[in-house]
User: What shape does this take?
Amino acid sequence: MRSQKLLYVIPVLLCASILFAGGFTNSEPNGAAEGSSEELSSSSEENFDKMMAVLMHKRCVNCHPSDNIPKQGEDSHPHYFDMARGEGNLGYQATTCNTCHQSENNDYSGVPGAPEWSLAPESMKWEGLTRTEIAESMLDPKRNGGRTHHEVMEHLTEHELVLWAWEPGIDAAGNHRELPPVPVEEYIEAVKAWFEAGAVIPAE
Amino acid sequence: MKVSFTINGQAQSIEIEDGNTPLLWVVRDMLDLKGTKFGCGKAACGACTLHVDGEAVRSCSYAVKFAEGKSVTTIEGLGTRENPHPVQQAWVEHVVPQCGYCQPGFMMATAALLEKNPNPTDEDIDNNIINVCRCATYVRMRKAIHRAAELTQSANQTS
Ligand code: FES
Ligand code: FES
Assistant: This one.
């Protein structure tokens, strides 16, 4: 019962400027099979840039916290009501993520939702990491839930909770949540091409 | 669309144009069960808490279509005047409510907590009972939650 202070803060989510804006449209899909090795590595870097611009966006990082506290909104403030990771990344015993979040966004309340709504496991903490560190963590089976590269690629391009980032709905004030800076189709193509080209993490 | 569910043990079917209508509105305005309250409509206060298949849910943020085939319990179905739920009994003993508006939500949240954790610590209460009471009945509420846990345990021992 610590939340009495919080009702007065009905979520009015702030609009922040778009990170990594621009520069990602109109590029050709990258075929890894042809071209010089220089071309290959530059297209791989381009794909990496696009992928990481998305993965470092608040729609992703808000649920990959480093302090077990989910974040909310465009300003990534700590989740209201002192919600935390709790058990199994799903909140507390009787007040779970699903007490409020369902499998779809709710436009009446402004509460976001998607299938399997939860925090990313603790080993997948991304908040505060550089893009290289996030990429390393993502490829490390000790931290990525034992996933192979192919499974990580599938997770990043097919998982409904990941793809929710492009359909994030409206917030409690009726404002549309900010989308990641790369269109979803372009992101999916870039992720697949980057993995197909060997998932090379460029030097910072 | 048609949505069928049980509510407080009774089978119920409703016809509704928008399946995304909050369950809270259906419960209050179509089924005339006014015990569940509207506070914020933003899943922030907990006044609208009820149970869906035994889990606490904030019904202002729960599309009625998701209730299809499920079992909904509202404060009206928690206990009766003759046979109150331990949470209701404890609330009476500690004279918890002031204006009363938030109380059904708190009692439903507490009942859900005791189902999962029959002997919650203060920390468990802090973590799980995060509804809002504008009259600040939190001190009595905490005592009542511990009392409800005692009542639940003694009921379990005698049964
Ligand atoms: S009315 Fe549902 S949480 Fe406030
Ligand atoms: S008793 Fe009045 S709001 Fe809680």
